[in-house]
Model the fold of this input.
Amino acid sequence: MDKNLKEEITSYAVDEFKRGHFCSEIIVRAFEKFTGHRFSVEIHRGMTAFAEGIGSSGCICGAASAVTFIISTFEGRTDNKEDYKNAFNLSNTFMKEFKKEYGSACCRVITKNAAGKLGFGKFKHCPYITAFCALKIVKLAKKHEWV
Done:
């Protein structure tokens, strides 16, 4: 099941990039496709500026940011008296896994290192990093029964 899901998500991410979507947008679209959950149009719009390291600044990876956003959507708090530890723990664990896999959470650094690690040129690695992130968040959603 995991191998098939990984292949499906990777194929989906690559196709969505070819259609012109950004990494952060694809995370939300993939989450919807593979979990059945629907986000509002405002959430979809909100994902646009996370791309290319937040507005093309090269800072934190847009796909990683989108995963953190979704974690917080389901585990975050609506009141300052509510517990935040699960949201923090899940986000922290994801970021550690991401940095272990790609050496950094910084889009600029990942892009610079992509040729050596993944054998691709600038931004050609993004669909595969996005697939990695999408698979992680879909698995989290199923494990924690968010959907």
Observations:
- Residues 85-102 form the longest helix (18 residues).
- Residues 2-142 form one domain.
- The radius of gyration is 15 Å.
